[in-house]
Design brief:
Structural class: mainly alpha
Number of helices: 3
Radius of gyration: 22 Å
Strand content: under 5%
Low-confidence stretches: none
Mean pLDDT: 90
Helix content: over 70%
């Protein structure tokens, strides 16, 4: 049985927060997190656009109950907050990736070549 999408999102957000905060991560996991976070952002953007389209249609119909419009507004606001968090975490992940790759390159530059007779 597969976990629900909400649990997958929670696990992804939790791990992204940990990595952005400085937890140890491998290059493979960085790439996986980047892919998953990008998918999360694209899905959230699509859901937000759909909610905004529904809201436009609801507002155009004077017979639409106010409660229905209010529910869609709350949904759109929640999706906008989620999209903003996804963007913030992706930016943090990109920053962390650059830091780790720079540290790796520096470490290997400092270690020198095993073929260099001076080392």
């Amino acid at each position: 049985m597969n976990p629900s999408p909400e649990k997958l999102d929670l696990a992804l957000v939790t791990r992204l927060r940990e990595v952005v905060a400085g937890e140890v991560v491998t290059e493979v996991e960085l790439r996986t997190l980047d892919d998953e976070a990008g998918g999360w952002l694209r899905a959230t953007d699509a859901q937000l656009r759909a909610a905004e389209d529904r809201l436009t249609k609801l507002n155009a119909d004077p017979a639409t109950p106010l409660a229905e419009i209010a529910a869609e507004v709350r949904r759109a606001e929640a999706l906008a907050r989620e999209r903003d968090e996804a963007r913030r975490l992706i930016e943090g992940l990109e920053r962390r990736t650059r830091e780790l790759r720079t540290a790796w390159l520096k470490h290997h530059a400092d270690a020198g070549s095993p073929f260099d007779p001076r080392t």
